[in-house]
């Protein structure tokens, strides 16, 4: 192999960028680091997506922190899931130390303590962060089936339930609304409503209802409702810096599928509503899917195909997506092939399965004469990674063993009191802080049942042809004040039929 310095410079030549770029670190070859041999991702290529992978404790979280900082500094908003609670330090300037000074010298970084604008969000719950919600109607049957763990037959039934509610303009805002519609459709009257388009079996309805109960016990009752979060609130700047939206997930540890699927809902919403943007100098927004394997575990083929299609097409809307997980093999091949930037931290090879995963990971990288990847991937130090990205020409850069920059913000948790204070001072707190429970499917169906006339007692001398003198059931329902109110509301919504997009989410 050539002289280490020459090899480092040759590798770095593939990362030269004439435009703005995210600085990852410096090239490391044969135990030597060249601070002038930089590894970077052009901002214009961030919306070609990426992967951050590695075993627990190898530095993935700090890499995510570093990426979020630089994107924010470039005016790019970011959404991240703060799974372990240690990304909240992004809001506060970091503290210098001998280790940080040494790392800055190795990576050629003019390190300075810096804090960034952060919004602290939570999926309902009582974490002190701003509670954000989605309605059942907006979430749609496909994503809800993923959260509930339904099979294909049950998902099909849930789709029928949504179809009927949509056609009746019954708003499904929270879990009690969906429960009331399911119970209605398994009643005699509800079965008549579905005549000609199928039905809801009692057994399948029971499965869905039990899954709803479990979801409510795991925090779902707090998450589903109004006011529904508007994804446009993620795309903000403060003093020229992109806002970093952090999902604080301490309360959602019992149901990790909920937060991963919620991120997919947000991405689907952006996909449906953002205009085509073409090639931009920098993305409009960057998503980080932490614990990405949860999104793909037990996913149906149709669900995976929708994810693949969304990832392929969302870049044209100016949105970049980075998946974060332990192994690249956690990501389906069709999705993995769409990820232009790869930042791979150390892997373990303690078991035969680990060794197979290591071998498969090596095969996903371009060949390189500079490193024996199978050896390097198991010997990387904390804060080091194997990197390849797309150059500004869209071509893969050489494989680089990189020593990564140190974050400039606090590398640790901010603390619950500080998060609560920041959330209450946010303009989003007034918008989303309080739950709204307006009239929806539950209230309307309950009113309909309560207003239904009781069956008349048998009379000894009932008037002849009484059925013509008394209004029929249909007329009685129409004359009910609650139903009249509902019909007036439906009439005012004429031309605003509920339509659904790629993931079954409601098009607004």
Characterise this structure.
The protein has 508 residues and is of the alpha/beta class. It is 40% helix and 15% strand. The protein is built from 21 helices and 16 strands. Helix 4 packs antiparallel against helix 5 (152-167). The longest helix is centred in the middle third of the chain and has 18 residues, at 256-273.
Question: What's the structural blueprint in terms of helices and strands?
Answer:
Layout: H1 4-13, E1 21-29, E2 32-42, E3 50-53, H2 60-73, E4 78-82, H3 98-107, E5 118-123, E6 130-132, H4 136-148, H5 152-167, H6 175-185, H7 188-193, H8 202-217, H9 220-223, E7 237-238, E8 241-242, E9 244-248, H10 256-273, E10 285-289, H11 293-296, H12 301-314, E11 319-325, H13 333-336, E12 341-344, H14 352-363, H15 373-376, E13 384-388, E14 400-404, H16 416-424, H17 427-432, H18 441-451, H19 466-469, H20 473-479, H21 481-492, E15 499-500, E16 506-507
Helix pairs in contact: 4-5, 4-10, 5-8, 6-8, 6-18, 10-12
CATH superfamily of the largest domain: P-loop containing nucleotide triphosphate hydrolases
Low-confidence stretches: 462-479, 482-496
What CATH calls the topology of the largest domain is Rossmann fold
Number of domains: 2
Shape: elongated
User: Considering DSSP H and I runs of 4 or more, what fraction of the residues is helical?
Assistant: 40-55%
Strand order of the largest sheet: 2-1-14-13-12-3-11-10-4-9-5-6
Largest sheet: 12 strands, mixed
Strand content: 15-25%
The value of Rg in angstroms is 27 Å
For the record, the CATH class of the largest domain is Alpha Beta
């Amino acid at each position: 192999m050539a002289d280490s310095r020459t090899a480092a410079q040759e590798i770095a030549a593939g990362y030269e960028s004439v435009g703005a770029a995210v600085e990852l670190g410096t090239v490391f070859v044969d135990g030597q680091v060249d601070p002038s041999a930089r590894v970077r991702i052009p901002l214009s290529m961030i919306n070609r997506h990426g992967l951050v992978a590695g075993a627990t404790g190898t530095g993935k979280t700090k890499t995510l922190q570093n990426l979020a900082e630089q994107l924010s500094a470039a005016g790019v908003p970011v959404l991240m899931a703060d799974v372990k609670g240690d990304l909240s330090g992004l809001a506060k300037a970091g503290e210098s130390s001998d280790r940080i000074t040494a790392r800055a010298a190795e990576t050629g970084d003019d390190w300075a303590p810096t804090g960034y604008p952060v919004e602290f969000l939570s999926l309902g719950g009582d974490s002190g962060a701003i509670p954000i919600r989605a309605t059942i109607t907006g979430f749609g049957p496909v994503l809800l089936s993923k959260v509930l763990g339904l099979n294909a037959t049950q998902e099909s039934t849930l789709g029928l339930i949504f179809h009927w509610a949509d056609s009746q303009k019954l708003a499904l805002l929270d879990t009690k609304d969906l429960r009331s519609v399911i119970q209605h459709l398994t009643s005699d009257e509800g079965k008549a409503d579905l005549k000609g388009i199928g039905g809801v079996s009692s057994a399948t309805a029971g499965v869905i209802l039990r899954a709803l109960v479990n979801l409510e016990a795991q925090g779902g009752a707090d998450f589903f409702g109004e006011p529904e979060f508007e994804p446009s609130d993620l795309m903000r700047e403060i003093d020229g810096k992109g806002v970093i939206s952090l999902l604080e997930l301490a309360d959602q540890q019992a149901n990790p599928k909920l937060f991963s699927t919620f991120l997919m809902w947000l991405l689907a919403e952006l996909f449906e509503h953002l205009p085509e943007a073409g090639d931009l100098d920098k993305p409009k927004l960057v998503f980080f899917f932490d614990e990405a394997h949860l999104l793909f575990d037990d996913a149906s083929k149709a669900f995976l195909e929708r994810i693949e299609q969304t990832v392929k097409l969302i870049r044209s809307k100016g949105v970049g997506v980075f998946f974060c997980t332990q192994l690249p093999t956690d990501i389906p091949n069709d999705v993995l092939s769409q990820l232009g930037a790869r930042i791979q931290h150390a892997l373990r090879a303690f078991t035969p399965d680990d060794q197979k995963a290591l071998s498969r990971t090596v095969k996903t990288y371009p060949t390189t004469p500079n490193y024996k990847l199978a050896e390097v991937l198991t010997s990387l130090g904390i804060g080091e990674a194997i990197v390849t990205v797309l150059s500004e020409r869209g071509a893969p850069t050489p494989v680089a063993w990189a020593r990564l920059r140190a974050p400039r913000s606090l590398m640790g948790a901010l603390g619950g009191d500080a998060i609560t204070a920041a959330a209450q001072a946010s303009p989003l707190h007034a918008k989303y802080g309080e739950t709204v429970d307006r009239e929806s499917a539950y209230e309307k169906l309950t009113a309909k049942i309560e207003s239904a006339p009781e069956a008349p007692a048998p009379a000894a001398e009932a008037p002849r042809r009484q059925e013509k003198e008394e209004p029929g059931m249909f007329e009685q329902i129409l004359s009910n004040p609650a139903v009249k109110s509902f019909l007036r509301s439906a009439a005012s919504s004429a031309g605003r039929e509920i339509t659904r997009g790629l993931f079954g989410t409601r098009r607004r």
